[in-house]
Predict the 3D structure of the following.
Amino acid sequence: MLIDARQRHPTCSMPMGALLDPARCTMLLREIGPIIGSPTLKVTASLLGKRIAFLSTAAALYAMTVFDKGLDLSLGNTVLEYQHDGKWQSRMPLINLAVTRPQAGERQQWRERIVRQLFAENLAPVWAALSAASGVSAKILWENLAVRIYSQYERHMIASAGQDKQARIQEDFDYLLHAPGAVFGVKDNPLAQYHFAHTRCDDKLIRIRKTCCFYLRATTPPEYCSVCPLTHNRKAKN
């Protein structure tokens, strides 16, 4: 998943910062749309945002929390791969793969720098660009990201980690849920906004989304994501 930028796909890749160019962003959405079966730029932007969220947080947050290593996820160091062959095939190419480590007694400051770089300096401007180019609500893009991070920490890291790492995983997750909005480049912490209580549906406890990610509009027949509000809100009321 994480690769050297020199190994990136020769045609289906571009500097992440190029998305901030309105013309290039719109052109990319128009190129990707037919490939993924998306009917509109709005749907395409949401689904591309989900992929970007998955790749960037899987790389940066997992390295930070599990291995105490900081990756450079700045706009100038990241490359967007977007090849799709029935499903996403893209990876996260980085120009510079060097890592940082926290100095003794300074992990909190180190963690904040990593989180600010990932969100405020990278994903926040990318979300703004995707929203402006397609009309998709920024709320949808942020909830796409939030759902991914909840799953990463609750279902993968915490559930599979040994006892020696569980405390740090929980501490980092709590930090992300309570950090000031400025760390994310927005007024209010977007991870806190969507961290609702779980609801029982079909004998499972899930955190139902508040916004629709539009996945169903790019699938035939329509498929719903596992926490879709269009299906689970009806079930929860029954």
